[in-house]
Sequence to fold (113 residues):
Amino acid sequence: MLLIACPHCGNRPETEFRCGGQAHIARPVDPAALDDLSWSEHLFVRSNPRGVHAERWCHSHGCGRWFNALRDTVSDRFLETYPAGAQPTRSSDVASPEVPATVTQSTVTQARA
Fold:
């Protein structure tokens, strides 16, 4: 069984956790200013890199708290877990996010081009 290191509870079996998708996604400054296509891309389009990826996880059958993890998508190995709101210590190993720090309609449109 795979053990995941909850930053709040320590090593626990994988069956206690649920993945919440890509971590460190910036919310749009003014969501109402986005057109429908830009808003749907913000909600549903995520990077899916081969290699190290930052993800959100919830210890749903334990402490119930959210945290972030660096996971290698090739080997399914967890490299690091850290509290939500914190940054990983292995930041140079992480695949760079495609979402800019501030999301606006123009940046989403530029990303589509």
Observations:
- The beta strands are 3-6, 10-13, 18-22, 52-58, 66-72, 77-83.
